[in-house]
C-alpha cells in the first residue's frame, strides 16, 4: 500500500474552485468471507455412492468431511476517494457488495487486503443493527451514545434532541423488542447521528419509517453535509438516491462498475437491468447461471 | 464494461500519502496497545452502564428480579449442603461447615459466572459489535462488572448466613479483609474473562470445552470439603495449591471464620495470579481485535 498508484483522484480543480478536503480513501479494497458450509458436496457423494446403504458409523463419521470452507469474494478491488460535503449513493443488485463496502468503511469488517482511510470514526447505520432488545429506548440511547464515545454529560445534553429525532414519544420507555421495526430504525438512526459523525453510512435505513421520519432523517443528513461531512447511502430505491445524492457508485460483483453523477449512473444501471431482463426472458437458464454463486454474498 | 467512464480526467495518486495529507486514519485496524487502552478508558462509562443495565434487565424478566443475585448461590449452597455435607459427610473436620460452604459457594460462583459469561461475551453481543465501533475489550470487562454488581448483595447475605447459622460467628474487624480479597479476585476474573472471550470468539468448539474447565476449577477449589483431608495425597494437594481460586476462598474463610488474616504468601500468590492473568488477558484479547464479530 506504500507506493502503489491505484487510487484515482479528480484532477486539480479549476483555479477559481477551492480543493475540497478528502474524508474517505478506499484503496484496492478486497474482502473475502470464509464460510463453513456443511453439506457441501452432498450431491456428488450421493451420486458416487449410489443407493448403497451406509452403516450408522459411516454416516456419523462422514459428516465432518462434508463441511468445507467456502470463500466468498464480497469485494474484489474497489478504489475511490470521497470528499467533504458529498452524499454518495451506492447501488447494485443483491450480493454486489454494497453492505460489505459500508461495513468496511465503518471498520466493522476488516479488509482481506487493501485499506480504508477515513476521517474520525465513521458511523454505520444498518437495518439489522440492534442494540440491546431487552432494554428501553431511553437506555439504548445512553448506551449507544457512550459506545460512540460521548461523555455522560454530552448525552444528558443531547438526550432531548435524540428523542425528538427518533419521534417515539412515550414509547421511549418500552424495551426495543416491543417497538415496531420502523420505530427501531428511527431510534437507531437518531443514536447513530447523535455524535454528528464526519462520515455517516446508511444501509437501506431510509426505506423503513413513515413519511414524517423520512423527512426528518433527510434533514439530519442535510445537517451533517452542511457540517462538511460525507454521507454514504445504500439503497435499492433509485428514486431516493437520485433525490438525495450528489454522486453515485455502482457496484457489480464486488467491483466498482461506474462512478459519477447520480443521473448518469442510474440511467446506465437502468439500461443494464432492462437489457438483462430482456435477455433473461429469452434465455432464462443462462441468466440463472450468471446469478448463481460467483461473487454473490448478501450478508444482510 | 463499455459504460465505465471516468467522471473527470483522473490521475493516479498514492492512497496512503493522500490519506496522510488529510489526516485520515486506517479504519478497522488494531491500534497500538497504549492507544487501545486509552480508547477503552474513555469508554469506561459505557462498560459500567452496559453492566448495570444488563444486570437489571436480565432479572427484570423474572418476577423476583434482583433477588436472583442472591437466590442462585443460596440455593446452590443448600443443595451442596445436603449432597456433600449430609449425605457424603464431607463436613467432617470442619467446625463451621455452613459458613465454610457458604463462603466457598458464593465466591466460587463469582469466578465461575465470570468465566462462563466472559466466554460468551463476544458471541452474544453480535448486534453491538456489528453496529458500533468501540474497543471490544469493553464487552468482557462489562460482563465481569455485571458479576461484581450482583456480588455486592450476595456478600451481604453471605455475612448474614455466617452470623445467623450455628455456630454463630461474631462480627470482627478482620471481616474487612474480604474487601481487598474480592477486589483482587475481580482483577483475576477480568483476566480470565478476557482470555476465554477470545478463545470463545475464535473457536466455537473451544467454547464448548470451557464449562469443563469450570468444573475442574470447582473440584479443585475445596468448595465443599476440607483441604486437609488430602494431607497424605500429594497429587491432590498440589492440584489444590496450584488453583488460585482455592486461595481466594481460603483468604476469605480465614478472615470471616477465624477472624484473622491469611498468611502473606497467600496474598502474594493471588496478587501475582491476578496481575499476570490481567496482563496476559489484555494482550491476548487485543491481538485478535480485528476479528471479533467477523463471520
Give a quick set of tags describing it.
heterodimer; A: 300 residues; alpha/beta; 6-stranded mixed beta sheet; 3-stranded antiparallel beta sheet; 39% helix; B: 295 residues; mainly alpha; 12 helices; 2 strands; disordered N terminus
How would you describe what is shown here?
The complex is a heterodimer of chains A (300) and B (295). Chain A is of the alpha/beta class. The N terminus and C terminus of chain A are likely disordered. Chain B has twelve helices and two strands; from the N terminus they run βαβααααααααααα. The longest helix of chain B is centred in the middle third of the chain and has 27 residues. The radius of gyration of chain B is 24 Å and the shape is elongated. Chains A and B meet through β1, β2, α3, β5 and β6 of A and β1, α1, β2, α3 and α6 of B. β5 of chain A pairs antiparallel with β2 of chain B.
How do the strands line up in the largest sheet of chain A?
A: 6-7-8-4-9-10
**Helix fraction of chain A by DSSP (H/I, runs of at least 4):** 25-40%
Which H/E pattern describes the elements of chain A? EEHHEEHEEHHHEHEHEEHH
What is Rg of chain A? 23 Å
Total DSSP helices of chain A: 10
Portion in beta strands of chain B: under 5%
Category by helix and strand content of chain A:
alpha/beta
Query: How many strands in all of chain A?
Result: 10
Coarse structural class of chain B: mainly alpha
Q: On the 0-100 scale, what is the average pLDDT of chain B?
A: 88
The number of E-state strands of chain B comes to 2
Q: What composes the largest sheet of chain A?
A: 6 strands, mixed
Using the CA coordinates, give the radius of gyration of chain B.
24 Å
Q: Low-confidence stretches of chain B at least 5 residues in length (pLDDT < 50)?
A: 1-11
Amino acid at each position: 500500500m506504500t507506493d502503489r498508484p491505484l487510487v484515482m483522484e479528480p484532477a486539480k480543480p479549476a483555479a477559481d474552485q477551492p480543493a475540497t478536503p478528502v474524508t474517505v480513501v478506499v484503496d484496492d479494497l478486497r474482502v473475502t468471507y470464509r464460510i463453513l458450509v456443511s453439506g457441501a458436496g452432498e450431491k456428488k457423494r450421493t451420486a458416487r455412492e449410489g443407493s448403497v446403504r451406509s452403516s450408522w458409523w459411516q454416516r456419523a463419521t462422514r459428516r465432518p468431511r462434508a463441511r468445507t470452507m467456502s470463500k466468498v469474494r464480497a469485494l474484489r478491488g474497489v478504489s475511490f476517494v470521497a470528499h467533504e460535503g458529498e452524499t454518495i449513493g451506492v447501488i447494485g443488485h443483491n450480493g454486489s457488495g454494497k453492505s460489505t463496502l459500508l461495513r468496511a468503511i465503518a471498520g466493522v469488517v476488516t479488509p482481506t487486503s487493501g485499506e480504508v482511510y477515513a476521517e474520525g470514526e465513521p458511523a454505520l447505520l444498518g437495518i439489522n443493527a440492534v442494540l440491546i432488545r431487552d432494554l428501553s429506548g431511553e437506555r439504548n440511547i445512553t448506551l449507544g451514545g457512550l459506545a460512540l464515545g460521548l461523555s455522560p454529560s454530552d448525552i444528558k445534553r443531547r438526550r432531548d434532541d435524540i428523542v425528538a429525532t427518533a419521534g417515539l414519544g412515550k414509547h421511549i420507555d418500552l424495551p426495543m423488542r416491543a417497538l415496531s421495526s420502523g420505530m427501531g430504525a428511527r431510534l437507531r438512526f437518531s443514536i447513530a447521528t447523535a455524535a454528528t459523525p464526519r462520515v455517516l453510512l446508511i444501509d437501506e435505513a431510509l426505506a423503513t419509517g413513515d413519511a414524517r421520519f423520512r423527512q426528518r432523517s433527510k434533514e439530519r443528513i442535510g445537517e451533517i453535509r452542511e457540517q462538511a461531512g460525507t454521507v454514504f447511502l445504500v439503497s435499492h430505491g433509485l428514486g431516493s438516491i437520485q433525490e438525495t445524492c450528489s454522486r453515485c457508485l455502482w457496484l457489480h460483483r464486488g467491483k466498482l462498475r461506474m462512478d459519477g453523477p447520480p443521473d448518469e449512473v442510474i440511467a446506465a444501471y437502468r439500461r443494464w437491468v432492462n437489457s438483462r431482463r430482456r435477455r433473461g426472458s429469452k434465455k432464462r437458464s443462462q441468466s440463472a447461471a450468471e446469478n448463481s454463486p460467483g461473487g454473490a454474498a448478501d450478508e444482510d | 464494461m463499455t459504460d465505465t467512464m471516468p467522471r473527470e480526467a483522473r490521475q493516479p495518486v498514492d492512497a496512503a500519502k493522500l490519506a496522510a495529507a488529510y489526516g485520515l486514519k486506517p479504519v478497522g485496524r488494531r491500534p497500538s496497545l497504549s492507544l487501545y487502552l486509552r480508547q477503552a478508558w474513555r469508554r469506561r462509562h459505557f462498560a459500567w452502564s452496559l453492566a448495570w443495565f444488563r444486570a437489571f434487565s436480565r432479572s427484570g424478566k423474572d418476577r423476583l428480579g434482583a433477588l436472583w443475585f442472591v437466590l442462585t448461590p443460596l440455593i446452590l449452597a443448600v443443595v451442596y449442603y445436603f449432597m456433600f455435607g449430609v449425605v457424603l459427610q464431607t463436613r467432617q473436620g470442619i467446625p463451621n461447615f455452613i459458613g465454610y460452604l457458604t463462603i466457598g459457594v458464593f465466591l466460587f460462583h463469582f469466578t465461575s459466572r465470570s468465566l462462563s459469561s466472559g466466554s460468551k461475551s463476544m458471541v452474544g453481543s453480535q448486534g453491538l459489535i456489528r453496529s458500533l465501533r468501540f474497543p471490544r475489550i469493553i464487552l468482557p470487562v462489562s460482563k465481569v462488572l455485571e458479576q461484581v454488581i450482583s456480588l455486592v448483595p450476595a456478600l451481604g447475605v453471605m455475612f448474614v448466613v455466617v452470623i445467623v447459622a450455628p455456630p454463630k460467628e461474631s462480627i470482627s474487624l478482620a471481616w474487612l479483609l474480604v474487601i481487598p480479597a474480592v477486589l483482587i479476585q475481580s482483577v483475576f476474573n477480568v483476566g480470565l474473562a478476557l482470555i476465554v472471550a477470545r478463545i470463545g470468539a475464535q473457536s466455537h468448539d473451544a467454547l464448548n470445552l470451557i464449562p469443563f474447565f469450570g468444573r475442574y476449577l470447582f473440584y479443585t477449589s475445596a468448595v465443599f470439603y476440607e483441604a486437609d483431608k488430602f494431607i497424605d495425597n500429594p497429587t491432590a494437594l498440589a492440584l489444590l495449591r496450584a488453583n488460585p481460586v482455592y486461595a481466594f476462598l481460603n483468604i476469605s474463610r480465614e478472615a470471616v471464620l477465624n477472624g484473622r488474616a491469611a498468611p502473606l504468601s497467600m496474598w502474594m500468590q493471588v496478587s501475582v495470579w491476578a496481575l499476570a492473568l490481567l496482563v496476559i488477558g489484555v494482550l491476548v484479547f487485543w491481538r485478535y481485535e480485528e476479528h471479533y464479530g467477523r463471520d
